[in-house]
Amino acid sequence: MKNSCYHIFPFLWKSGLSILLMLCFTVGNLSAQDEEEPAATATNKPVKNTFESVWIIDNQTVMVPIKGTFEMDIQHRFGTVKNGYDDLWGFYAPSNIRLGFSYAPISKLNLGFGLTKERMQWDFSLKYALLQQMKGGGMPLSVTYFGNVSVDGRDKKFFGRGTDRLSFFHQVIVARKVTSKFSVQVSPSISYFNTVEGYFDDNGDVQKKMDNAHFAVAVMGRYKLTESLAVIAGYDQPVTAHPTNNPYPNICFGIEMNTSAHAFQVFVGNYSSIVPQRNNVFNQNDYQNGAFLIGFNVTRLWNF
């Protein structure tokens, strides 16, 4: 049944949140390398490299680049594998691509924008590190806020008003570097679309097919195999139940390779829209029917 995911899987994200909260009280020294900070005791230093990139598959991580960092992102999603050889398991199917750019003008703040092929969406984002996990005790978690506004860039004939183009996304990312190799984060979010599709009921009144606001939660993790190679995985669970067209959850997993200036992730998952609010609200790729697709993220950093 289409809505079965709302009854079968909610325990996954609830369990993920419970695990993360328990990890807050885990005691132990982490083997992360020291950050380049003014002379201070180890207990006053933030934990370094909870994640290696600002992205983990389709989600933002808790990480904010250091001041003066300029970043370019290339994100690509192929078609689903359902058609098999007919479109080479999605490689020759219609794809989705996003080009993004961001800059950290001050410490703990990152500003960005991007353009996505689907609906020619322009997104403008802000990311700020609210709290940082500390070594040797003190703050046990890192907490970061991420938000964006997206503008549907298609022709005006698709919209009644200019504000109908707008959608918004807000997310709080709570993470912990558990060991030098393993990191986990939980990210509740709210998506909001100024306009949603409607229909005329039997009385001639307009009814919405979906709510304007949508709640969701994501649980993501990374385990380092070597200094430059890691496995990554995650689960995105819709929370809001809409009148119709409820979105499907996303299960994703892959590998990450990184250097000091690059990060490359290749993975399999169900999300294809790239812009987070469209993924969370409109995903119709059902993993129970094999609607997986291959994607990759490439990031390049410059420090000024």
List the keywords:
304 residues, mainly beta, Porin, twelve-stranded antiparallel β-barrel, two-stranded antiparallel sheet, 16 strands, 45% strand, disordered N terminus
Would you kindly provide a written description of the structure presented here, covering whatever features stand out?
This protein has a twelve-stranded antiparallel β-barrel. The chain contains three helices and 16 strands. It is mainly β and about 300 residues long. The protein has a single domain (about 1-304), classed as monomeric porin ompg (Porin). The model is unreliable at about 1-15 and about 20-40 (pLDDT under 50).
Topology summary:
Layout lengths: L4 H4 L1 H14 L31 E2 L2 E2 L8 E12 L15 E11 L2 E8 L4 E11 L10 E11 L13 E12 L4 E12 L4 E3 L5 E3 L4 E12 L4 E10 L11 E9 L3 E8 L6 H7 L10 E11 L1
Antiparallel strand pairs: 1-2, 3-4, 3-16, 4-5, 5-6, 6-7, 7-8, 8-9, 9-12, 10-11, 12-13, 13-14, 14-15, 15-16
Number of strands: 16
The spatial strand order of the largest sheet comes to: 3-4-5-6-7-8-9-12-13-14-15-16
Helical run tally: 3
Number of domains: 1
